[in-house]
Every structure is written in C-alpha cells, then in structure tokens.
Design goal:
This protein is of the alpha/beta class. The protein has helices at residues 13-28, 38-42, 58-61, 64-67, 80-87, 107-119, 158-170, 201-208, 220-228, 239-245, 264-274, 277-289; strands at residues 4-8, 32-36, 51-53, 72-75, 92-94, 142-146, 174-179, 195-197, 213-217, 232-235, 252-255. The strands form two sheets. The chain has a six-stranded parallel β-sheet with strand order 8-7-6-9-10-11, sandwiched between helices. Strand 10 (232-235), helix 10 (239-245) and strand 11 form a beta-alpha-beta unit. Helix 1 (13-28) packs parallel to helix 6 (107-119), helix 1 packs across helix 9 and helix 7 crosses helix 12.
Length: 291
C-alpha cells in the first residue's frame, strides 16, 4: 500500500544527489514522497516530478506534529534530531544504520540495493530521476574543470590544473574552469574566457549541460556533472573512497597517485606531488577514446 514518506537527505551535494536514487525508487513504487534538501530544492527545475522542500530548519526538526503526518520519516544519515523524533514516537528510519552502507562498493548501487532489500522495490533503478535538456551543441569538446573542494586537502595544486588545461587546449579541447565568485581572485592570470563563475548551483548545473566532459577534485560538483550525463575524471586520494564515492551515473575514471604511495600517511603527505598531469591526461583519454 502506498505511503506518505518524508525523505531527509544529507547536508552534502554529492550525497544528496546519490540519495535521490532512493527518492526515485520510492516514487516509482507509488509512494507520496516529500524530499527535504536545500541542494535538491535549488535544482528543482531538474527534479520537477518530485515534491522537494529545503532542508528542515531547527524549529521544524523539533515539530513532532509536522512529522507525524508522514507514515515514515526516512533519514539518509543519522542526525541529532532523530533521537527527538523517536522519543516522540515518530516512525523514523535511518538508512545508514544498515550494514549495507558499509559495503566497499559504489554508494549509488548501495542505494538501489537498499530499496530492494528494505522496501521491496522490484528491479530498482540506480538513476536519481534528474531530467536534463538535450539541446547541447554536438562536438563542442568543452571540458569543465572544477579545481576546488570544500576541503582544501582534496585540492590538486593550481599550477597542475593550469598545465592540464593547457595540454587539453593543445589537443583541441576547450577547458573551462568552474569557480565560485569568491574563488576567482585566487586564479589571477587565468584568461577570462577560461573561467565560468556562478553564484548559484542551478546556474552551475545549466553550464554543465553545455559541456562534454568533466575533470575535477573529489567534490559534489563531480556528482552533479555525472548526474547531468557527463563522463568524468575524479582526482582522488584513496582507492577505497573512490570505490564508494566516485561519480557513478556515467563513465568515470578515478585517478589516484601511484601505487608506491602504499600507506595512508604517505598518501596524505605526498599525493599532490605524486599525481602528475600526464596521469590525469591518460585517464581523460580513456573516457574520451576508451583507450
């Protein structure tokens, strides 16, 4: 029997796009699903078939009357207010409590398997329901480059990104850097025609729909690019993290530092120096030519 379900996603962009796999399967099952997530709400033009609200405010989190209107409140990852809802006898399900969430494989496939195992969804999809216009020009060879991350530890050196862009240009591609307005000043010297600066996530998504490929740091924008349909190259530090969290909707190459950085302390200290421009270009060649 269809149910009215509240689905509260993560506070991170990439996690939220992955969590929409659950929303997509619940809706396909015939449920009345309301998604709570500020990122997805800002991208609602691409998720028109879903009911989407911003992430719950602190006051709303504590409003047991509001949450009791739902047959079930599903939370992707545990949050402090979950204990309050449970105390008020609101039916809450925390997806990350399942052992399945610890599996060392793609989180997108884990979401789909969760839908089958816990909700009885038959033939669950790994798609998140994002609908993208198909008006992109053919053979434009635009490569979106996102060099930053919320965690600077995950950022490859600026001079290597610029060298990568120059090598791409020499090969006939058109590299464009995606930067937040406050980041532009840190990239002085980069030609203006190689920068797109968007203050709004929906505008970033709109730009990505005009691109052909994506190269970037381990960040949510890479998941957005993959969700839009771009083959992606992700610069990652650890193989286990890449296995679980690399963009997974379209072809992806997760590029790691050489294997001789065999232990975590070495990787953490030297990955930026050890990961070369040539290594990233080889991964890019694999997503463009399959070689």
């Amino acid at each position: 029997m269809p149910k009215k379900i509240a689905l509260i996603l993560s506070d991170r962009l990439g996690d939220s796009l992955i969590g929409m796999v659950a929303a997509n399967n619940l809706v396909a099952q015939g449920n009345n699903v309301v998604v709570f997530n500020t990122y997805i709400h800002s991208l609602k033009a691409y998720f028109e078939q879903f009911q989407v609200q911003p992430s719950p405010t602190e006051n709303l989190q504590k409003d047991q009357v509001f949450w009791n209107q739902f047959d079930r409140v599903v939370v992707m990852f545990d949050r402090p207010f979950v204990a309050l809802l449970r105390k008020a006898q609101v039916p809450v399900e925390v997806m990350s409590d399942a052992k399945l969430f610890k599996a060392k494989r793609s989180m997108v496939s884990i979401q789909a398997e969760y839908c089958a195992n816990f909700w009885g969804v038959k033939n669950p999809t790994q798609r998140n329901g994002m609908v993208v216009p198909t008006s992109k020009a053919d053979n434009s060879k635009v490569v979106a480059i996102h060099p930053t991350s919320a965690d600077s530890f995950k950022e490859w050196p600026k001079q290597k990104f610029i060298a990568l862009a120059n090598r791409l240009k020499d090969s006939g591609f058109k590299p464009i850097f995606i930067l937040a307005p406050f980041e532009v000043r840190d990239w002085v010297g980069l030609p203006e025609d190689m920068i797109v600066s968007k203050p709004d996530l929906a505008e970033v998504a709109e730009f990505l729909t005009s691109c052909d490929y994506f190269i970037g740091s381990d960040s949510g924008i890479g998941h957005l690019a993959s969700s839009i349909g771009l083959p992606t190259v992700s610069l990652c530090i650890r193989a286990g993290t890449a296995r679980m969290w690399a963009p997974a909707w379209e072809k992806n190459e997760a590029v790691l530092a050489p294997a001789w950085l065999f232990c975590r302390p070495l990787k953490d200290k030297f990955w930026k120096q050890a990961l070369t421009v040539s290594r990233v270009l080889k991964a890019f060649n694999r997503i463009t030519h399959g070689s």
